């Protein structure tokens, strides 16, 4: 089930894209918690689910992001 992100989180992503801020993202991938770093290039929607796309073309579903640049969005 997809849970939409908060407006505050969307604003953080928008700032990171516009200012080309190197970002650290901690997120769920299946049963694992992973960390990745990179520049967020854009946000896309695929089948009603929002994703961020990093400069290395990696796509991460927004509602699975635990932490973005040190700010928590999901409690684990």
Query: Per DSSP, what share of the residues sits in E-state strands of 2 or more residues?
Result: over 45%
Coarse structural class:
alpha+beta
Spatial shape: globular
Note the run of SSEs as H and E: HEEEEEE
Give structural notes.
Helix content is 17%, strand content 50%. The protein contains one helix and six strands; from the N terminus they run αββββββ. It has one helix at 7-19, and strands spanning 22-29, 32-46, 49-54, 59-61, 65-68, 71-72. It has a six-stranded antiparallel sheet, covered by helices on one side. The longest helix is centred in the N-terminal third of the chain and has 13 residues, at 7-19. The protein starts with 6 loop residues before the first helix and ends with a strand.
Task: Using brief descriptors, characterize the structure shown.
6 strands, six-stranded antiparallel sheet, 76 residues, 1 helix, globular, alpha+beta
List the helices and strands and how they pair.
Elements: H1 7-19, E1 22-29, E2 32-46, E3 49-54, E4 59-61, E5 65-68, E6 71-72
Antiparallel strand pairs: 1-2, 1-5, 2-3, 3-4, 5-6
